[in-house]
């Protein structure tokens, strides 16, 4: 597929007829060309050439990849629906059939839809393309051929447009060509993109390669002559030639590995192509017998093919006379074809076989390990095109860690992935039920980074509660992250439904207990009190009741405030304003209402005020005055039912319960140090509960303690903050 010069339709048909012979197939391609020629008439590209030249080049690239007649016809027609007036998908279906129409539609850009920005528009087009590709691989072959010719003629575009198209090519189309093993197209797309994105660096590397070209060619020629003598001595069938490294791959090695041009070992590269796998290993043995191999540079991709089906033996040797270093690649003819044209070489069109796209698509999924994952993601992933492209970019295009299941299936993952990523790549349910993992036979933590070659065995339990929210921080693949989020959202929705049901039941039970009319809690009355309680919907209110974020009493008070048999605000205020007839009684909770001793007073459980706190009284219905901290969120929106209250004097002997939460870095003896501090501060511990987050090794300790007053509490908090590894101490409000 090295033909880069512009061809005519006649020259394209010569390439087609080298493998397509049947008259009906030739007629189909001719018919597609005639249709494209007629409808693109009068249209010109930026270069000034007739537009039809572009579709001919696309068809020719497909012919050089030995694609079938319907694929070539679709290549010729690929821009008609998008660019030609009066041509629709229905037109193509009527004239050329559903199969070709589907291919043309898949590569047609999305139109007539408004997008918020160009990024979303591009992502939506890519998503449409890849969804179609997951169903039919021919879609991406057409698009790659289209993009290749567009890149070859990019010099006619404005500089900013050149950069935009080059960036898209480098981030989307070159990686997918690489994953499909089509290295000829991938290499050319990368070099052309590199040229437009960093012209100065491109020319610099080009000059460096050119300066050493004659020396390098001479060295390669000498080495080829030496190897040829070995081949002839052992009578092995072979082809041998020098292989030049393309500019962008040189640039990547210089940047990612921080190497100088002279340090790149595989600049001098030789490829040997033979007739059988046995001869590959035989040739390798003869070369290693004569030349010293560099340790750690041998790779057997025949026994362990890459994810894109690439197979070859790679070794790096030192030529003894001048000390030159050569990379040698040894492969069969079939392997060489797949290395250059990838999926297109493996499934090249043959007229004498029964051709069904569905069968070939299934075979692709069987042969290309990543394609099955790609199809699965395309079926399952987010409707958001940007999210979809982010997952695809990271999980498929950038996957460079290759692990194995116990049965030998290869799983490709992004760098830094852990067993949880591996589990979700196998199946969503496997991920959701994961409880542990073995790597190379040893049980490891679930956050262990995986390396290429690791054999991973996922341990599952059907009774597992499912993934933890902490897993989102651990996983590296977008696919796993989305699956965990989906599970947690579903769980939250289920939990919310149960909370709504529970909250409604609790309110109904409270009404029954108080013997109130159920009509007072109808939908409209509930909606009327939402704002005063800071809820957005009745369902949110029910959840608040179930989670004890709001007291039933405060809801009942609002719902029944107009009932004649309850005390009205004015009556309450009369009692409050009435002069005391006798000496004030002491309150059981240590709080009094100035001038009133006929009302029951108690401390609110939500904020648990203690002497020294600023406090306010809330007049409840049926339960007297509830005393809250002045900053309690449960009474912050109250206006009418608040009255001033105050602490009694001489309360030093009383104890008050307070809830605390301590956030700290986990360590040995942490809880022991916290309890010791409580004892030193003369604080009684009533309850303790401690949990550790394995993801970030943070400990959360919940305490219920008894203190005398706010000063006593403040002293305790100050001392707890001095305990080693404690980050924060919070007094909670329920």
How would you summarize what this structure contains?
This is GTP diphosphokinase. With 734 residues, the chain is an alpha+beta fold. The protein folds into six domains: 9-197, Hypothetical protein af1432; 211-346, 2-Layer Sandwich (Beta Polymerase, domain 2); 365-467, Ubiquitin-like (UB roll); 477-562, no CATH class; 567-650, no CATH class; 656-731, Alpha-Beta Plaits.
Structural write-up:
There is one protein chain. With 734 residues, the chain is α+β, with helices and mostly antiparallel strands. The protein has 6 domains: 9-197, Hypothetical protein af1432 (Orthogonal Bundle); 211-346, Beta Polymerase, domain 2, CATH 3.30.460; 365-467, Beta-grasp domain (Ubiquitin-like (UB roll), Roll); 477-562, no CATH class; 567-650, no CATH class; 656-731, Alpha-Beta Plaits, CATH 3.30.70.260. The chain has 29 helices and 21 strands. Strands 1, 2, 3, 4, 5 and 6 form a 6-stranded mixed β-sheet that branches. A 4-stranded mixed β-sheet has the order 13-15-14-16, with no helix packed on it. A 4-stranded antiparallel β-sheet has the order 19-20-18-21, with helices on one face. A hairpin with a 4-residue loop joins strand 19 (684-693) and strand 20 (698-707). Helix 6 runs antiparallel to helix 7. The longest helix is centred in the C-terminal third of the chain and has 36 residues, at 478-513. It is elongated. Residues 110-116, 379-383, 562-571 and 579-584 have low confidence and may be disordered.
């Amino acid at each position: 597929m090295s033909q880069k010069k512009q061809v005519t339709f006649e020259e394209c048909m010569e390439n087609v007829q080298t493998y397509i012979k049947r008259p009906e197939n030739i007629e189909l391609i001719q018919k597609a060309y005639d249709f494209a020629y007629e409808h693109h008439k009068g249209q010109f590209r930026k270069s000034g050439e007739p537009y039809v030249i572009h579709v001919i080049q696309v068809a020719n690239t497909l012919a050089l990849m030995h694609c079938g007649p319907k694929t070539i016809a679709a290549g010729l027609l690929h821009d008609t629906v998008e660019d030609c007036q009066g041509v629709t998908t229905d037109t193509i279906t009527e004239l050329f059939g559903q199969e070709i129409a589907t291919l043309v539609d898949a590569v047609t850009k999305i139109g007539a839809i408004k997008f918020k920005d160009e990024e979303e528009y591009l992502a939506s087009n890519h998503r449409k393309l890849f969804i179609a590709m997951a169903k039919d691989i021919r879609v991406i072959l057409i698009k790659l051929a289209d993009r290749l010719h567009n890149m070859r003629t990019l010099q006619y575009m404005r500089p900013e447009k050149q950069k935009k198209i080059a960036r898209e090519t480098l981030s989307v189309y070159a990686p997918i060509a690489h994953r499909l093993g089509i290295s000829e197209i991938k290499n050319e797309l990368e070099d052309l993109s590199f040229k437009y994105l960093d012209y100065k660096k491109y020319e610099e590397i080009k000059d460096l390669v050119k300066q050493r070209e004659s020396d390098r060619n001479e060295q390669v020629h000498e080495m080829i002559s030496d190897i040829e003598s070995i081949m002839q001595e052992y009578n092995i069938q072979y082809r041998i030639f020098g292989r030049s490294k393309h500019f962008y791959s040189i640039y990547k090695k210089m940047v990612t590995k921080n190497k100088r041009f002279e340090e790149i070992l595989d600049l001098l590269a030789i490829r040997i192509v033979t007739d059988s796998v046995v001869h590959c290993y035989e040739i390798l043995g003869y070369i290693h017998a004569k030349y010293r191999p560099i340790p750690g540079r041998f790779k057997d991709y025949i026994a362990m093919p890459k994810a894109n089906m690439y197979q070859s033996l790679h070794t790096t040797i030192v030529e003894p006379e001048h000390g030159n270093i050569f990379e040698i690649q040894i492969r069969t003819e079939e392997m060489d074809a797949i290395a250059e044209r990838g999926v297109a070489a493996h499934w090249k069109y043959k007229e004498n076989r029964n051709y069904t796209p569905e069968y070939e698509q299934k075979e692709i999924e069987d042969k290309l390990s990543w394609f099955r994952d790609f199809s699965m993601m395309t079926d399952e992933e987010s409707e958001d095109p940007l999210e979809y492209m982010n997952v695809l970019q990271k999980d498929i295009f950038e996957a460079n860690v290759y692990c194995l299941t116990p049965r030998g299936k290869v799983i490709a993952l992004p760098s830094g992935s852990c067993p949880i990523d591996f589990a979700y790549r196998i199946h969503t349910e496997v991920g959701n039920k994961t409880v542990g993992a073995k790597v190379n036979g040893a049980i490891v933590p679930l956050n262990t980074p995986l390396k290429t070659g690791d054999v991973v065995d996922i341990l599952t339990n059907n009774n597992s509660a499912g993934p933890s929210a902490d897993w989102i921080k651990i996983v590296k693949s977008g696919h796993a992250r989305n699956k965990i989020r989906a599970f947690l959202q579903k769980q939250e929705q289920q939990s919310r439904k149960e909370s709504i049901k529970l909250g409604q039941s609790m309110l109904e039970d409270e009404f029954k207990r108080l013997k109130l009319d159920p009509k007072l809690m109808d939908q409209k009355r509930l909606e009327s009190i939402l704002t005063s309680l800071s809820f957005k919907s009745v369902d949110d209110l029910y959840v608040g009741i179930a989670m004890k974020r709001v007291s039933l009493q405060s809801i009942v008070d609002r719902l029944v405030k107009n009932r004649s048999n309850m005390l009205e605000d004015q009556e309450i205020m009369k009692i409050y304003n009435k002069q005391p007839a006798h000496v004030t009684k002491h309150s059981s909770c240590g709080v009094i209402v100035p001038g009133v001793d006929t009302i029951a007073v108690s401390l609110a459980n939500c904020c648990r005020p203690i002497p020294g706190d600023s406090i306010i009284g809330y007049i409840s219905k049926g339960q007297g005055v509830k005393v809250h901290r002045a900053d309690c969120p449960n009474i912050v929106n109250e206006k009418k039912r608040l009255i001033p209250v105050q602490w009694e004097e001489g309360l030093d002997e009383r104890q008050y319960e307070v809830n605390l939460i301590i956030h700290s870095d986990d360590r040995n003896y942490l809880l022991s140090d916290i309890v010791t501090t409580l004892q030193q501060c003369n604080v009684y511990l009533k309850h303790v509960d401690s949990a550790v987050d394995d993801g970030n090794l943070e400990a959360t300790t919940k305490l219920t303690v008894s203190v005398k007053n706010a000063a006593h509490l403040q002293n305790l908090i100050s001392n707890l903050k001095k305990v080693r590894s404690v980050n924060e101490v919070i007094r909670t409000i329920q």
